[in-house]
């Protein structure tokens, strides 16, 4: 049970909040797109895994946050009738977050799911399923860019779109969602659950993260459930 009451606070939460801020040196630890903590003066506490996604009030799930980052770091919001491009590092939890949100009226375009649909293994090196998944994904994206959805939400999981791809998404009116639990967490997940080369993929993403146009509608960056 959360220490936060319906009104927003309890005495126990206020004590815990003060302890977290002291522990973190009153410095905002919410990561930006490159994985580097914000570093501004913090007066609030953020849930790394949002309560809406099962996160609790244990100290390991809490971090100091400035008011701006805390406001922006909430869970992804379902947007009916929208094209949502979900961006984030490998092992960031993009697929899990999208599956949490999607309903029967929605669609998900996820390369890893397509590899499995064509008989491959997730994160494997099965050449034919990988090639077929790439063709199917490209065709689905082209269709969606030509005729954006009008009913349910369509989520496109795209780890690192290039500038041309970002521009095409923006022209189609897509909303960009960044799912980023931070470099160290992604590296821990890669070491625990992925083939050895995934650590390099994570490092490469943070070295050169996608650049989103400032004029594009962009949802708040958020941590992820894994």
Automatic annotation (TrEMBL):
Pfam families: HNH
Domain HNH nuclease: 15-71
GO molecular function (one): endonuclease activity
SMART domains linked to this entry: HNHc (SM00507)
Protein name: HNH nuclease domain-containing protein
Lineage: Bacteria, Bacillati, Actinomycetota, Actinomycetes, Micromonosporales
